[in-house]
Write a structure and sequence with these properties.
Two copies of one chain form a homodimer. The longest helix of chain A has 26 residues. With 193 residues, chain A is mainly α. The structure holds a DNA duplex (30 and 30 nucleotides). Chains A, B: This is TetR/AcrR family transcriptional regulator.
DNA sequence: ACCTATACGGAACACGGTTCCGGTTTCAAG
DNA sequence: CTTGAAACCGGAACCGTGTTCCGTATAGGT
């Protein structure tokens, strides 16, 4: 029974070609996202990976699933940086500022990601859920530490803050705009005077 | 030769039916924008106005032209409120806060307008140009007055600020978000401490 | 009443996402 | 090695949008 794997419920393992295609797709998507943003046409991604469009939908039912798969590592890294920064920074407020900087860095280097983040399209629900579930608690922890230290206003909602910062990063590559400056203003506005 | 008006350049006046259609379109578009946002399908707007899609494109080559035509009055009113607020408010900072509140009010009540504002699509160039040409100088004047009074940081770029505030208003109707709170944070961040 | 510049309507086209199904491939059992 | 079927693949077909184009209708001057 506890043999090579064909237990009671599992009918069969994932086929090798399936796994190959999935990885080819991830690589192709990552490349396409860099050149055309996260809105890269499905057909383009499929062509790059050398598969049919059907294969994309089979592995990643919605675009959000694909985006999450591509950026999972980076989101994970960002989430883990939160507690670390809190431990090594001079003050909780400094840690908060550094962490948000990290988050902004992540967003502005992915064309169209910030836009996708705020879409209320049902297909992007997955993206919302993943990003927020993973990052909001970290942000909340930082906010709480800073509030307890009396550095910032109390009761700031982490979800609202992250949502807003995401919005501010939209169109960050425009020469006539400066997302970091605006985010800086928000951080400053958080401070108790 | 110098008869009823057919001068040297103008071949003929705009036909009456053309003008009627243009007004029907404006009305239909305004209604459609309320129910479906500024992204309302072209065919829907045409159907509401009882005209063909060709007629829309003839009168308003790009969607931005239509949007501008529909909201011109309100933008005008907002622009004119700037100097008025500056004159009647207790301090320049108060005037700035009130004016931005007005602007935010305008944006959040038009589904999708904030999104459209930040689109870098060439078709929305007209919208950018009009809104910014009209409102940025007003904002700049308010910022300048407040800076001169020593209430806020100097050299804040009005264009960047408006761009950022526009971004913050995206998705303002989501129950889990609060655009006004975020804008308030920005205004607070502007203050000298 | 006639004539033509002007304007109209909607069919046709372009494009991107999404679905679906006939053919192919993998894998394990014999 | 052979074989059978479940798993998987590819891309044609479909749908909803924006956009263009041209034959037809009409306003308004003469």
């Amino acid at each position: 029974m506890a043999g090579t794997g064909s237990g009671s419920g599992a009918p069969r393992k994932q086929r090798a070609d399936s796994r190959r295609n999935e990885e080819a797709l991830l690589e192709a998507a990552a490349a396409a996202f860099v050149t055309s943003g996260v809105d890269a046409p499905v057909r383009d991604i499929a062509a790059r990976a050398g598969v049919g469009v059907g294969t994309i939908y089979r592995h990643f039912p919605t675009r959000a699933d694909l985006i999450v798969a591509v950026y999972r590592h980076q989101v994970e890294a960002c989430a883990e940086a939160g507690p670390a920064l809190l431990a090594e920074s001079a003050t909780p407020h400094a840690a908060l500022a550094s962490w948000i900087d990290l988050f902004v860095d992540f967003l502005v280097t992915k064309h169209g990601l910030a836009e996708a983040m705020r879409s209320d399209d049902a297909a992007f629900q997955t993206l919302h859920t993943y990003f927020l579930d993973r990052l909001v608690p970290v942000c909340a922890q930082l906010l709480d530490a800073a509030a307890t230290a009396g550095e910032i206003i109390p009761d700031m909602d982490a979800l609202v803050l992250m949502h807003g910062i995401g919005n501010l990063c939209i169109g960050a590559d425009s020469p006539s705009y400066d997302a970091r400056l605006m985010v800086g203003l928000v951080i400053a506005g958080l401070r108790l005077r």
